[in-house]
Amino acid sequence: MSPVITNLLLKSLAETLYMLSVSAIIAALIGIPLGILLVVTEKHGILACPVLNKPLAFIINLIRSIPFIILMVAIIPFTRLVAGTSIGTTAAIVPLTIAAIPYTARMVETSIREIPFGLIEAAESMGASPLQIIWKVLIPEALPSIIESLTVVIVSLIGASAMAGTIGGGGLGDLAIRYGYQRFQADVMIATIIVLVIIVQLLQFIGSNLAKKADKR
Question: What is the CATH number of the domain that holds 172?
């Protein structure tokens, strides 16, 4: 590859990592609490509130049912409102985050449900409040599984960020489309795929190790 293409590859890699990091952080900050709420507010939950649980579950399922490419186009007005533009790396973060939040919430919900109910009952019998149960039982016990779930979400975001390149979202997907596909430069396409594979492998390695360290059993 020419030095120009190499520089473009490095620039696109930086854009992809930027999109991933920002969208993953926001999705975790919002999605983890939502996932916990889905469990604790259900019927017979420690904070049972069907009035909140059912609409929340409906909204999460609604967003998850929309294919990402359609979601990107459908929320262009909202993206412009938030990012000031509908094109570029920063703009791509908006649909990426919106797509990742409900996915994260459902993954965290699954992680919380894996906790033996006996632990929660034991905490309640000792007089723990619902908030204490959440902070001292649910989150610590589910943490390894939550980390693994977030790893899956981030890996999924890599594919979504590449898809964002089809509408000028920047990053490796945009590079692959503009140079690898439209200009028939096979070396650019191959290099992009290799970089994406390396990123996925590194993320999976880091996530698996963090999950093992968080597992105190």
Answer: 1.10.3720.10
